[in-house]
Design brief:
The chain has about 290 residues and is an all-alpha fold. It folds into 2 domains: about 60 residues; about 210 residues, MFS general substrate transporter like domains (Growth Hormone, Chain: A), CATH 1.20.1250. Helices cover about 75% and strands about 0% of the residues.
Length: about 290
């Protein structure tokens, strides 16, 4: 078991408190943007997370070994790619649910069935992509997945009130395929890049960047709604503003997703070295 290699290490209580408080404050702050309270909470969260990094640098048994980020190219770039990817995709379902129900006039059940297209495609392709990532460089699969997702987001920026449902479904299939090709192979790359005693840290880091990315994505959505619609209830009079909100968000997310491609590609040379050094042709397990 991975914890056996760290049997005598003590819990970094100070680091745990700073990280936990900082992340919770950050999530709550993003949910209240662009208001003054939200901005203040985000500022406090940044200070707490800076203090967390300072604490980890001097801790004997840090909660987060910063060498994993500073010295492990695969781990750092894979985590960065995950953060960007989740930031660019997590609010898409929220935007499309508003689009389908208000601008297309669908009931919640029908809209939900249409939106299920993406997770169904993800479920179908995630297992095969995970198995494939054990045989080939997962970085290539993850990079391809991000690229496909970027194309899907770019195509979504062209939606209008009269766009056909078939167009939306095709893009959801595209995004689901890209998500499946990215998520499992990227997780494989992260977990395969660390020693056994750091598997728990790697898993926690993956969950943390996913949570932060999802929070940032929905935070951007809330900011745009506040800017375009304000506190007014959504009604036929502000449907044009709702469409502007959705399209602006989709454009932002499409551009945000592009750096994730380069972050994913940046770790591939190191992954290639790992695979060449593995006699079995699979990922080297530390």
């Amino acid at each position: 078991m991975e914890w056996a290699d760290a049997r005598d290490e003590k819990l970094d209580i100070a680091g745990s408190l700073l990280a936990g408080t900082g992340l919770v404050t950050l999530m709550l702050g993003f949910s209240r943007l662009p208001g003054t309270i939200g901005t203040t909470m985000c500022g406090i969260a940044i200070i707490l997370l800076v203090l967390f990094i300072m604490q980890e640098k001097r801790a004997k048994y840090p909660l987060l070994d910063l060498s994993l980020i500073m010295n492990n190219r695969v781990f750092s770039y894979s985590s960065l790619a995950a953060l960007i990817h989740y930031s660019a995709t997590s609010a898409i379902g929220f935007f499309l649910s508003l689009y389908l129900q208000y601008l297309k006039g669908l009931d919640a059940r029908t809209a939900g069935l249409i939106l299920m297209t993406q997770p169904v495609i993800m479920a179908i392709f995630s297992v095969p992509s995970g198995k494939l990532s054990d045989r080939v460089n997962p970085g290539y699969l993850a990079s391809a997945g991000i690229a496909i997702t970027s194309v899907g987001l770019f195509l979504l920026t062209f939606i209008e009130a009269d766009t056909s449902l078939a167009y939306i479904i095709i893009i959801l299939v595209l995004n689901g395929t890209g998500y499946a090709l990215f998520s499992t192979p990227n997780s494989n790359a992260i977990m395969s890049s660390v020693e056994r005693k750091h598997l728990g840290v790697a898993s926690g880091m993956l969950g943390t960047v996913r949570m932060i990315g999802q929070t940032m994505s929905l935070g951007v959505a809330m900011i745009l709604i506040a800017l375009y619609i304000g506190e007014e209830k959504i009604n036929p009079d502000n449907y044009p503003d709702l469409l502007k909100t959705i399209k602006t968000g989709l454009v932002i997310f499409a551009f945000v997703c592009i750096p994730a491609i380069f972050a994913s590609l940046a770790r591939n040379r190191k992954l290639n070295e790992t695979y060449r050094n593995d006699n079995n042709g699979g990922p080297a397990k530390s």
